[in-house]
Specification:
By secondary structure, this protein is an alpha+beta fold. The protein has four domains: about 120 residues, no CATH class; about 60 residues, ATP-grasp fold, A domain (Dna Ligase, domain 1, 2-Layer Sandwich), CATH 3.30.1490; about 100 residues, ATP-grasp fold, B domain (D-amino Acid Aminotransferase, Chain A, domain 1, 2-Layer Sandwich); about 70 residues, no CATH class. Helix content is about 30%, strand content about 30%. The chain has 13 helices and 16 strands. The strands form four sheets. It has an eight-stranded antiparallel β-sheet. A four-stranded antiparallel β-sheet has the order 5-8-6-7. β9 and β10 form a beta hairpin. The two termini are about 25 Å apart. The model has no long low-confidence stretch (mean pLDDT about 90). One of its GO terms (molecular function) is ATP binding. This is ATP-grasp domain-containing protein. Keywords: ATP-binding, Nucleotide-binding. It comes from Metalysinibacillus jejuensis.
Amino acid sequence: MKPKFTLREIYGDDILYTPRTPFSDNPWMLNDVHKLDALTSREVLFADVPVLVHSATQTAQAKALLSLAGFTPPSTIYTYDTEEAYHAHLQNSDATIVCQYLHEAHQIPRDRYWMDAEKFNELNCKSYIDQLIDAKYVPKRFTVKLADAPATISSMTLPIVLKPGGDDPTSGGYGVMICHTNEQVTEALRQLRKATTEDVVVEQLLSVKANFSCQYIYTKELGIQYLGASEQLTDEEGHYHGNVIVRDVPQRVIDVGRHIMECGVAEGFVGIAGFDLIVTDTGDIQAIDLNFRQNGSTAMLMFKDSFKKSVAKFMSYEAKADNATFYTNIVNCIKEGGLLPLAYYDGDYFDEPVTSRFYGIWYDDSLEQIEMRERLLL
């Protein structure tokens, strides 16, 4: 299997890629240390540049899964076990840093980023969408002070969506609060006050006919390239639970995504980006989230041309029973074919009991066949 592009082709030769969420307080980020460390190895197969990952993703068992799938485990890997070791790698490297989220200035100096660091952060803030793209592609929304939010909400019809409007980026649906009732509005406002959020985005919840996550890359050499699209799987609270590939995407949706990418590039963006685009019941195309960074389904779209199957699904899993059984089930599924391993976080690496995690891409003739094999895995 070959990726459509590598991080080397997108960001250049002399870079160090760190997908790790910064070790700093952010109320709108997942606070599960093991999950955040497990995610660090998700893009290794299409990197072709040094990547900073947690040591538990590079054990003999983890590398064996890649070998079983026909991959040679990459040699350009740096590992860390602690926050101190993580920061030491970043500070001791002379390479340009490519990351998923803005770090504190003392962790990564602003002149070490592959693009303007403040602009990178700004592009990923929830409130910036109004300033970036054509208003006709943005749902009815208001960015207001938290104290003024109740009055704004009272002028709108439920359901609505509340999002933090400050400089802190969000991830995986955290900070996106869908409110169908007044009780949910009250709880969402309480969470925003608890996080000392100053600005709030109040957005009308759309009536959805189709939901696409369209991804693009941009480099000066390649220009803007469309990677593909997936459908996001989320729970009732809007939290992210994987993606299924979508091969038949309306050209209008792709064109709107390209418009958004063009706007980002005009402001200096270079790299991979993914946009959540809604087709409403009335046929309008609306952008509800802009992610100017790698997305959960980026790896799936990078390898989509290699699958030779009509359906693919990216998903993450945790061991439900014991780690040994979980690992054996993964091995058996890879041997059967139709499962591309991306990362294995080996819980047995630690002295204390830790649940193992696995990230992979299924590919088959139907989603039903994939879901049947998922049940066998678990």
